[in-house]
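User: I'm new to structure prediction. If I give you an amino acid sequence, what do you actually give back? Let's try with this one:
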Amino acid sequence: MLIIAGCILLVLWLMGVAFFKVTKGVIHLVLVVAIIAIVLHFVRGG
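Assistant: Good question. You get back a string of structure tokens that encode the predicted 3D arrangement of the chain. For your 46 residues, that looks like this:
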């Protein structure tokens, strides 16, 4: 479940940077949350 959430957040971050030219801190916060979700997925043995 965390891997899916992490992948979705990562895609949203990429779209935000590539298409909308968003350079605010919020879009980078989404990237951090995505990375944390993916790492937790692997740490927990998902």
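You can read the tokens as a compact description of the fold. Here is one thing that stands out. The chain has one domain: 2-43.
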